[in-house]
Amino acid sequence: MIKIKKQNIKTILIITAVFTFFVFNQSSNNPLITKASAQTGNLLNSSDSPIPEQIKEIKQQLDINISPETPKPNDDVTIMIETYGLDLNSTNIQWTINGKEKLRGDGQKKFVFNVGTSGESRVVLNIFPKNQPQITRNFVFNPSNVDLLWQAETYTPPFYKGKALFSPESSVTMVAIPNFINGSSRVSDSNIVYKWSVDREVMGDNSGYGKNYFKYTADIIPLDKEIGVEAYPSGQETRKGVGSSVLSEKNSFALFYEDNPTNGIMFNYSLMNQINLGSRNESKISVFPYNFSINNKSSGLEYTWYVNSEKINIPSNTNTVTIKKNSKEKVDLASVFVDISNPTHIMQTTRSAIDFLFKNN
Predict the structure, then answer these.
(1) Rounded to two decimals, what is the model's pTM?
(2) 84-99 pLDDT, tens per residue?
(3) DSSP-assigned beta bridge partners for residue 142
(4) Containing H/E element for 201?
(5) CA of 295: how far to CAs of 27, 286, 292, 320, 358, in Å?
(6) What is the CATH number of domain 146-247?
């Protein structure tokens, strides 16, 4: 082991202090070091430095909000802008549509316009900051309407002028009818891409090129469903059009009609509440279901008839009965009701009732 005397340690410390002072004193007069320091300072202050360019880029980062993003024909569109690197309230801002100035002035950060019925709207935003480059943003709006039609796969009687309704567990077919115009001609439906959704959940298997229809089957639990579709011409996603429809499930029901021996079933009016037959001895009636998932009145439905709470023993697929008066009573009231059910769709069931009043002479 090497031992260093205290006197030698003191000598080493003195020499180190003298050397450090000498180097520091010389570096302040060294032209090489001075030149390097000057070059660094010029780089930081130079207009060619990348740092000021980054600052300019930050100033040009605009926060843009467009509502609605995919407008329909005749929608009002609002564009709002904001930035944290520039005082827009004291900055001249210009808005143009298809080359025509619509709005200009200091602090014009909000622009509202109507997209019209059809055609392309090119909106240009120009911002003119003081002592800085002009900022420009371009927006293109091409409103397209997508109409949605639907048809429930449920039954209604002959000559019924109303629409078959969407009932629990039934199916409905949605058809999208977009209206995209190229020049003076309408874009063919087969050249359009469709994206279907249920309550905003995309139905990938039912979406795609040329799929302008969508079949939806309701759950057992009756809930409203929003069916939506986005459509755009192939290769032109910026021209997207949207459509939506809320399907509200309606309960199945049934109505009574007179089965006239001469004229047949009288579909021109339904029998309701209490019917006074006067001196007539009997009445033949038919019941017809509405909004059941069937093709006709007899396909799978079960009818259970009761007269004055007593079950009538007839085949379960019979929708017609004959009500006769009781000759033993001076006044005879026949309370009739029928239960109708669909064995394959347990939520499709209904009960209808009617009273017949007979009078004996």
Answers:
(1) 0.64
(2) 878 899 999 999 999 9
(3) none
(4) strand 201-202
(5) 102, 18, 9, 18, 36
(6) 2.60.40.10
